Amino acid sequence: MKVKYRFLIFFCITFVFGLFVRSYFIESFRITTALMEPALKVGDVVIVNKWKNAINWKGMGFADYLKIPSPKGRIALYENDGVLSVGRVRAVSGEHVIWKQGDLVNSENKDGGLVVPFGYYLILPELNDSEVVLEEYLVKEKDLVGEVQFVWLSLDWGQPSQGPKVRWSRLFTRVD
Predict the structure, then answer these.
(1) Domain limits at 29?
(2) pTM score above 0.70
């Protein structure tokens, strides 16, 4: 009888610990669109570091002490109208940016362009469109889930009838 209770207690502790880790530290996310190519390919499964964003370190005054860097330039997982998406953080609060000839440019000129509001990030996919409405890519700081760290699995579903093929060269590769 004691063995059953020990197993049940072990199972409960393991389950609670797993929920805690998934809620505050790491999360797995599957890439389903080609918007982030070549950095992330369709079929990649990435690990997202959530500890910087799950707890409001800035609000508690620990951001400087913990030396939490700005997410600018990193690929981030964020929530947009209840849907998780990935994109590259291209500008942070207070920056003035303008879309010029298919690229985002920092600008001191306040005519045109966009000033990223306080508490927001500008997160864009890896796209080269000539026309981009920057306001559509503003993401609230609280909607930032975490930073994509590495690809832990990569499956190529080129011919679904044959099943997926593992892209061995992409396993456990760091995402920059």
Answers:
(1) 25-87+125-130+139-174
(2) yes
